Amino acid sequence: MEASITHSEIRHVLIIPAWYPNGNDKLIGTYHKQFATALNQQGIKANLLYIDRQGVRQWPKYPFMKKFETESCDGFTAYLRKMPDIAKISYDRQMQSYVRYLKCLYRRYEAIHGKPDLLHAQVAVPAGYAACKLGEMLGVPVVLTEHASYFERFFEGREGVYGRYAVTHADAVTCVSAYMCEPYRKYGVAATVLPNIVDCKAFTRPRMPHSNLPLHLVTVSALRPGKRIDDAIRALKILRDHDALPTFRYTVVGDGTEEGRFRRIAAQEQMEDVVNFVGRKSKDEIAEILSQSDILLMVSDIETFGIPAVEALAAGVPVVSTRCRGPEGFLTPACAELCDCHSVEALAEAILRMVNRLPSMKSDELRAVASQFDAPAVAEQALALYRKVMRTDASSPKEID
Fold this sequence. Notes:
36% helix, alpha/beta, 6-stranded parallel β-sheet, globular, 14 strands, disordered N terminus
């Protein structure tokens, strides 16, 4: 006879993200997909529900849009439902509508897959709040993972009403970086770290020899505000003007709203001959670029985690980064050089320090740092948390307001 399922066992997880890479930005929220795949690879049935908010500019097209879609992914299915975003008209009505749309999408999901053992929300507002409401309706526990760089905003103003509700009603709160956990203590919430997954194996291809090639620096980033590629260009110009570097090239992988401005700055600084914007690339293409690179530059104002830095380390490439919070949790002196944000001179000095260290950098040691973020390692952390939550939920039922 098959053994009965205990409260601490978990077989079915439903992931509810606030972001999903199905709009113009194909990078945002890709880690949610990787996470769902990783759980399935560990024998957990994990699927995803996503409410796609359509802003004011999309309203004229909304009546003609396909409102419900499914997407078959690597080991899981994503269920997507569009809704009009009315937050600028009434934030409270927007949140109520979001919850209603999520519950309707869930009923469609449950008819196919049955009731999950646990809900895992990604980002407190709106997904975390709505997941807590859905969890109360279903009587299942909710885990919340925070990814947003602006997460402290969820404790203030109208957003704060819903953010505080989410973090105090979730059965467990996690963040992708250690620095994000501290503010939750003010609300009596003991947040822990559950990092993003990085497919490290995809980047562990043989390193290309560089003895006869120019120094190759690379940045992999969505070109959005706050990514500061202009600082990297100006820092490299300082080094070139002072003959501090050998022949080099700087490859920028990614696209976004700031690309035109960054290109103009490269032209203004007369760096077009060494700065190459190559656009968005696939994972395999990025892995190939990294295999031929010497240093990854990350020059953001703030990063909650820093996936490109982990990918670089997995490829055996050391990192030069600004002190942008999240990556500081794993970028140690053994694998990186750090400098203050917004200082072109400090960035130039950090690049030069790393160039001088390159002969002593060992790819295997860099890859060992990255391995803690590989899919099996992070999935096992999540499963351990789920088991703890299921045990706690069974012994101490949550009170519902």
